[in-house]
Amino acid sequence: MINSEIKKLPNSQAEITVTVAWKEWEKFIEQAAVDFSKEIKIQGFRAGKAPRDMVEKKVGTAALLDAAAQKAVQGTYPKVVVEKKIEAIGSPKAEVLKLAEGNELVYKILTDIIPAATLKPYKSAVQKINKEYLKKGSEVTEEEVTKEIEEIAKSRVQHVKVDREAQDGDNVILDFEVKQSGVPIENGTSKNHPMILGRGVFIPGFEEQVIGMKAGDIKDFELTFPKDYHAKGLAGKPAQFTVTVNTVEERKSPEVSDEFARSLGKFKDLADMRKNVSEGMQEEKKSDLKEKRRAEIIEALIAVTEVELPHILIHEELHKMIGEFEMQLQGMNMTFDQYLQQIGKNIDELEKEWEPQAIKRIKAALALEEVAKDQEIEIPSEEVEAEMNKTLAQYKKVQDVEKNIDLGKLYNYVKGMMQNEKVLEYLENIK
User: Fold this and answer.
1) pTM assigned to the model
2) Secondary structure (H, E, C), the chain
């Protein structure tokens, strides 16, 4: 039998006193004795088979009970957290208060907990936001449709090699080398590098030097890196450039016509394309307005949320943000360490920079949770499981699920996402 008492402390902490009855406590002592007997040699017994009293005599009562107490805390504390619905975070600190054979075990846990947020009246602020967004339509003009189709045509641009000087808007293929005081800089050399003139991808002044060059031309010039350049070692410093133009290409967009529309494979003619593009733009505009409205609603909730955030919670949120960012970097074939090197910062500096955003994310989550409690918004477990199954369906084998997914974490994540969606739908309908 396990009993527990919870005492809330300042700074979002809780003190949990747990009492484990002797009958339950003795099981952990037996297990500790078995573990010890696997590690030590006791004459006449195979590993793991020596009786408890002989193990205790060999290692000492204190060592046996200490090991058993650790097992008891590890085995009972998680159950207490679930049973009492304690939202514990971070690493708990345990202290044994009563430790003896033939008697109950008593220990105390000090842990950080998710803080309780106080949400001040929010409906009038949300109502005002909703009224403003109801005035905004998702219609698009003919001019906007024309511009979008022109952009589609530009994306199908063809590069035609020309024998003339490079002009603004041309695509050039070039080799370049960058030096400082005659020494090549790191990652400062490139061969057959494509560049569209006029897009300002390189540092100021570089493209102006290339304009006017022809295929086969070689040019040396000096430029100064901007003071806010991401690589601190180069920021504000001069460098020498050697550029060789290999190819000059004129970029030609196809003419917008019925033939162009049909060439895309899904339109009968230009009119059909305009209709399809217009509908797509309306849906995109509607989605964009919804996203912006929700962002403003969340900002309004954050503004009326009072909560004292423990440092551990902010640290965990920063850790989560960095994990999400690492996933994005993987898609760019870049490691987190490479990114830090590129921006000239260490992880402590980055975390300090991101801390305000982490605090906003935590407050937003707590505010949405408070609205859910206030409006008694809950997601039935069968709905959560149905949504979970969509994720699990991506895995062909049960072994893959067991290997790659923590089902408990997935359940909580899906439930949280679904609950937030319902809360936001409720907030959007406050008239």
Assistant:
1) 0.66
2) CEEEEEEEECCCEEEEEEEECHHHHHHHHHHHHHHHHHHCCCCCCCCCCCCHHHHHHHHCHHHHHHHHHHHHHHHHHHHHHHHCCCCEEEEEEEEEEECCCCCCEEEEEEEEECCCCEECCCHHHHHHHHHHHHCCCCCCCHHHHHHHHHHHHHHCCEEEECCCCCCCCCEEEEEEEEEECCEEEEEEEEEEEEEECCCCCCCCCHHHHHCCCCCCCEEEEEEECCCCCCCCCCCCCEEEEEEEEEEEEEEECCCCCHHHHHHCCCCCCHHHHHHHHHHHHHHHHHHHHHHHHHHHHHHHHHHCEECCCCHHHHHHHHHHHHHHHHHHHHHCCCCHHHHHHHHCCCHHHHHHHHHHHHHHHHHHHHHHHHHHHHCCCCCCHHHHHHHHHHHHCCCCCHHHHHHHCCHHHHHHHHHHHHHHHHHHHHHHCCC
Token reading at 386: 């149905």
Residue 104: closest CA among 15, 31, 34, 17 = 17
For β-strands 118-119 and 305-306, DSSP reports them as antiparallel
Sort 18 into a burial class: Cβ within 10 Å, 0-12 / 13-18 / 19+.
buried
Six-digit token pair at 162? 């020309």
Per-position pLDDT tens, the chain of length 431: 899 999 988 888 899 999 999 999 999 999 998 888 887 776 666 665 677 777 778 778 899 999 999 999 999 999 999 888 888 888 899 999 999 889 999 999 999 998 888 999 999 999 999 999 988 888 999 999 999 999 999 889 999 999 999 999 999 999 999 999 999 998 899 999 999 999 999 999 999 999 999 999 999 999 999 999 988 889 999 999 999 999 999 999 899 999 999 999 889 999 999 999 999 999 999 999 999 999 999 999 999 999 988 888 999 999 999 999 999 999 899 999 999 998 999 999 999 999 999 999 999 999 999 999 999 999 999 999 999 888 888 766 655 655 667 777 888 889 999 999 999 999 999 98
User: What's the CATH number for 157-252?
Assistant: 3.10.50.40
Q: Count of CB atoms within 10 A of residue 122's CB?
A: 20
Query: What's the CATH code, domain 2-113?
Result: 3.30.70.1050
Give the number of other CB atoms < 10 A from CB of residue 4: 18
